[in-house]
Amino acid sequence: MLQKAGFVNVELVRETGFNASPKTKGVLVCARKTERLDAWKKEKKQTETNIEIKQKSKDTKSGSG
User: Fold this and answer.
1) By C-alpha distance, which of 11, 10, 58 is closest to 34?
2) How far apart, in whole angstroms, are the C-alpha atoms of residue 6 and residue 44?
3) Share of the chain above pLDDT 70, in %
4) What is the per-residue pLDDT across 40-57, written as a single tens digit (0 to 9) for each?
5) Which residue among 11, 20, 33, 47 has the highest number of C-beta atoms inside a 10 angstrom radius?
6) What's the whole-number mean pLDDT along residues 10-30?
7) Cα angle at 55 between 49 and 61, to 5 degrees?
8) Residue 31: alpha-carbon gap to chain centroid
9) Which tops the pLDDT comparison, 37 or 52?
10) Are 2 and 31 in contact (CB under 8 A)?
C-alpha cells in the first residue's frame, strides 16, 4: 500500500505499544517519498551550482581565477 502511494525503502521500525483497539497495533514506519527525494536531489544540485558560480565570480573579481 505504501509503495503504491510512491514510498520507497519502507521499513517497519517497531511497535509503539499503543493499540487503538484489540484488532490494531500502533507501529512506527520509516519510508521515503520518491518525488520528494528527487526534488531534494535537484534542489541540492542547484544549490551546489549556485555556490560554484558565486565562487567563480568572487575569484574573477579578486583576480585569482
Assistant:
1) 10
2) 21
3) 97
4) 788 888 898 888 888 888
5) 33
6) 93
7) 140
8) 10
9) 52
10) yes
C-alpha 11 chain-centroid distance: 15
- CA–CA distance, 11 with 3 (Å, rounded to integer): 11
Measured CA to CA in angstroms, residue 54 lies from 45, 48, 58 at distances of 14, 10, 6
| Cell numbers linked to 60 | 574573477
In single-letter form, the type of residue at position 47 comes to T
Q: Where are the domains of the chain?
A: 7-62
- Please, what is the Cα angle at 25 between 21 and 36, to 5 degrees? 125
**pLDDT-derived band at 58, boundaries 50, 70, 90:** confident
Yes or no: say if 10 and 2 are a contact pair by the CB < 8 Å rule: yes
Helices and strands (H, E) in the chain, number of each type: 1, 2
